[in-house]
Amino acid sequence: MKRFFNTRERLVPEALEGLLRSPAGKDLCRLDGYPDIKVVLRRDWDRGAGKVAVISGGGSGHEPAHAGFVGRGMLTAAVCGSLFASPGVDAILAGILAVTGEAGCLLVVKNYTGDRLNFGLAAEQARALGLKVEMVIVGDDISLPGHRQARGIAGTVLVHKAAGHMAESGASLDRVAAFAGDVAARTRSIGLSLSDCDTYDEEHASRLAADEGELGLGIHGEPGAQRIALADAGALMGLAADALLETLPEGDARYALMLNNLGITPVIEMSLLLEAFAGTALARKVALVAGPAPFMTALDMNGFSLTLVELTDEIAAALQADVGPTAWTGMAPWQEPVVIPVPALPDIFAAEPSNNSALRDAVQRGAKALLENEEALNALDARIGDGDAGSTFAETARVIDGALDRLPLADPQALMQTLGRLLARHAGGSSGALLSILFATAGRSTQERWQAALLEGIAAMQGYGGAREGDRTMLDALIPAVRALDEGAAWADIVRAARGGADATARMGKAEAGRASYIPDGQLDNVPDPGAEAIARLFEALVPGK
């Protein structure tokens, strides 16, 4: 897999430096101790202010955790290890010494052996130096029932939030630790992923087949509790939500949900997953929601995790409190989407329908031609674009053909106005929008002749679309054909003009507009523009009596 990095050894220090240069790091600083001591802390922190410090950390690769949550209302400092590796005892001790005053500090630790040991040893050394230190261990993973050591995963972030809020309020160390421990005990998480993660290993090979995913996985690339078959988003979300639901005690308790992006799941899919969650039985128990967002990731893992925390009034207030770190995107009430009425849109069929048998017949022939050429035009477009030109023109044809009985076919100006509104509402793609502009402008024209009005419409197409004749677009067929139409040419000459314009695009080595303008020179040789070809085939089908 292609990655942006210099060396694996320098990855974490260089990433932390980048964080400190960014807007998210404007209120942060670090201890001078690279490469062994990688500690990020609040620049505004005053050890003598009488507030408890909250420290967390662990292996890197989970960004924005942990350094991204350093700031007012969350962590005072984050101790960062190498990729998926606990920081050393000296680094943790340095972090404790840097931020701990008389009020003491709380360590929030994920339940992994290395983290427990190293943070525990550092805590003992700090106590030996006379500092007050408490530790809360988070084990929120529910994927391995009965396991003595449940892993600490994304739910750790909610403990950061709760502990940080309590510490910011000026509470004592005992109170902060007790509150954080209570939140940790009420928190449970489960992850689901369609991929494992690559820890910058040149020999990396995925353990999952193309049709497999995993349910119940940690955040270090370790295998999930079970392999699952690939399914749609609703079914996959149902698996994760049901697994959480089974662990909840009976009763009417209300919960906060955190939907966490485990790495590279696209934003649009994360939003879809939250909507999928709304269809689960578990959603009925949720009162607050955070995300979807990356909170505790696993490098490039394509997956998500769900975290629930049972709410009390105090926990709800802590989770909703404002904080400094921008990586915490906030928590808000779970609610149904707010929907307001659509404003009244122009009536597409404002004009009375009327008939013109010759025009009706021509429209039907044109629609039939575009539908019959859908696949051929798509294949042509696939050579230089995204392969949907034929489908776009075919959809335009379906829209117009389906509205034939409601069109004012006997009134050219009203017809063009109606077609403009119809295509604006229903046609897709840039070609549909451009044709809508053509007809809408022509329909507003003061020209006495509808042929001249169409030329005005073409001028509007050029103004909005930015293309001109010779730019290798559908205009290369449309402009000469409409120009011949305006000049009163015979249909054979009109069709010849359209066909000649379309054929000429195959000899144009470079497109100056549209998607084809991004295609390197040489790849367009002898390939006509799909839009121009569609226009030519349309005019060929419009020949009277054909």
Automatic annotation (TrEMBL):
Q: Could you state one GO cellular component term attached to this entry? A: cytosol
**Tell me, what is one Gene Ontology molecular-function annotation carried by this entry?**
ATP binding
Looking at the record, the residues that make up the DhaL domain are 357-544
A biological process from GO: glycerol catabolic process
Mind telling me which Pfam families this protein's record contains?
A: Dak1, Dak2
Q: Which InterPro entries match?
A: DhaK_dom, DhaL_dom, DhaL_dom_sf, Dihydroxyacetone_Kinase
DNA-binding is among the record's keywords: no
Question: Residue ranges of the DhaK domain?
Answer: 7-328
Keywords in alphabetical order, please. Answer: ATP-binding, Kinase, Nucleotide-binding, Transferase
The record lists the lineage as: Bacteria, Pseudomonadati, Pseudomonadota, Alphaproteobacteria, Acetobacterales
Question: Source species, please?
Answer: Gluconacetobacter tumulicola
Q: What is this protein called?
A: DAK2 domain-containing protein
